[in-house]
Structure formats: C-alpha cells, structure tokens
Design brief:
By secondary structure, this protein is an all-alpha fold. The protein contains six helices and no strands. The chain has one domain.
Amino acid sequence: MHLAKEISCWLLRHWPDVVVALVLGVIVDLFRIGSLLRSGVRHLKNRMAEHSVGRLRSRIALLERYRIALDSYADKALYMGTLGSIIGMLVLISFAGMLALIDNLGFGNDHGVAAICALAAAMGMGLKAWRLAAIGADIDREFSTLIAKVDMEISALRRRLEQRTR
C-alpha cells in the first residue's frame, strides 16, 4: 500500500510528463503498420456493425476496400521510401555541385567544406535507401500479416451476416 501511495504522489508531481509520454506513445503507435489503436477501433466498428444487416454489408464492403488499399500500399511503401531517398540524394548532389561551381567562378570563397558536407549527406541518404531496400521483406511480411487479419475479420463478418439472413 505504501508503494501505491508513492506511485500516486509521483504521478501527481509529474503529471505533465506522463501526459506527454502518453501522447507520444499514441503517436508512435499510430505510425506503426500494425497499430494496436487502429485495430482496436476496427474491432469496435465491427462489433457495432453486427447489430443490423445493412451495417454488416456496408462494413464488409468497407473492409474489402481497405484490404485492396493495403495490398497496393505494400509495394508502394517500399518504392516511395526509396524514391524519396533518391530525390533527396539528387538535390544534395546538385547543391554540392552548385557550391563547387560558385567557388570556381569566383563568386564565393570557401564553399568546399559545405560541398563536402552535402556530398556526405547524399552518401548517407544512399545508404539509407540501400538499407530500406534490404528491409523490404520485413515490410512485405508486416503488410501480409495485416492483410491476413483483415481477411479474417471479413470472413467473420460474412459468417455473422449469413447467420442473420437465414
């Protein structure tokens, strides 16, 4: 009981920190592919849809559209991340070239260090794109797991619909 009192006192003293930690935890969870909060909301919506046949049919149609979107996002997630890295690399390389050109034309002095930093950042982005391509299998596996969960929800709702329409 003494421990519970100490914990409650600590929470009262540090409540802003606790609130910030909870908000950041929610944000981090929402950015995950298999977010627990989104799956909980989807579960509640499925439960609410079970109360009428019309809601069940519309919920099944909505989940089928969501499954199709997930299937297309699985490939797009990897491609868009790699494309973003490539575009970033091109911008940094162009910036480094512009700085080198400014130095060669005599319009500025000592931009060589900045050009080297821009090229180093471009190399870092290249390594990031390389790593992203290497973890593509993990992304595909996570999307496949999420698609399988949605498929199970759709089949459960269809069974429920069949029971209601008999």
